[in-house]
Amino acid sequence: MIQTTHRPWENEVLDLLLDAVCIVDAEGRFTYVNGACETIFGYTREELIGQPMIDLVLPEDREQTKQAATKVMEGTPTLRFENRYRRKDGRIIELSWTASWSESLGVRIGVARDMTERKRADEALADAKEQLERSNRSLQEANEMLQRLATTDHLTDIENRWSFENRAQIEISRAQRYGEHLSVILFDIDHFKAINDQFGHLIGDQVIIEITKRVGRNLRMVDMLARWGGEEFAVILPNCRLSDAALMAEKLRALIADEAFTHVGQVTSSFGVAEWAPQESLDQWIKHADNALYAAKAAGRNSFCVHKDRPNGAHES
């Protein structure tokens, strides 16, 4: 075994280093260790000198460590090779090595840094990051659920009145800014109380659900259907003039009336149509559509009525 000696001042300098410095002979035995080696491995200098370095390596890491040592001895310096060791007290440590081969001395010279605490910190940080991401995902899902609960009608799964009014305000602002047409349809189910009284509330709910499906399938992507309350519904029609909204109301009326409903038979609805006028508030606009709806019901139901901004200008069908 080659004994490696240094001048006293050299040993003092090497012992001041926080990184482990060691020299290993061709047989893999320690021939020199500095003070940091004692601290890192937990063995005294006397216990380490002459001991095969591979004996300290965890069994799972020994094969790759031998392969790395072979490359070093063949003249290929190794930078940042990482492996694990078992200290004298049994604790496992993780080291990052830089090593080279001295052909003249026939030894490997290695410098190692203890990465154990850093690895643990990295793992703890990764765990904390993962936990934070999970918490953020859960929070996002909870927010989405709350948003859905706040904006969706639980029976029909369409937008509720609160959501409709928010969207309507947005559409009013857009129409006012760009000078676009904007219309609304209010409609309700004719004689719905009689349906509930005769067939029960479960059948009544099925009628409501079926109507929202029929109407929803025949609207544009930009349109919005909402349950206004009870058996009353609202449709907002962006970039749609009054005449086109009236055609849509008649189309929806026929879709509901012309196909019988399970258990109930024919169901009809009445419609009120109004186009938003510049400077008109949401309440005023909806009031005009509501007045048109009641005019349609007064005219015999199963019809639509259009609000117009002139006396006696309502059109009934």
From TrEMBL:
On whether Nucleus is a keyword of this UniProt record, the answer is no
Residue stretches in coiled coil: 111-152
Question: Which BP terms does GO give this entry?
Answer: regulation of DNA-templated transcription
PROSITE patterns, from UniProt? GGDEF, PAS
Family matches, as InterPro entries:
Diguanylate_Cyclase (IPR050469), GGDEF_dom (IPR000160), Nucleotide_cyclase (IPR029787), PAS (IPR000014), PAS-like_dom_sf (IPR035965), PAS_fold (IPR013767), Rev_trsase/Diguanyl_cyclase (IPR043128)
User: Which residue range or ranges hold the GGDEF domain?
Assistant: 180-309
Cite the EC number. 2.7.7.65
Molecular function terms from GO = diguanylate cyclase activity
| A UniProt-annotated Pfam family | PAS
PANTHER family per the record?
DIGUANYLATE CYCLASE DGCM-RELATED (PTHR45138:SF9), REGULATORY COMPONENTS OF SENSORY TRANSDUCTION SYSTEM (PTHR45138)
Protein name stated in the entry: diguanylate cyclase
Upper lineage is: Bacteria, Pseudomonadati, Pseudomonadota, Gammaproteobacteria, Chromatiales
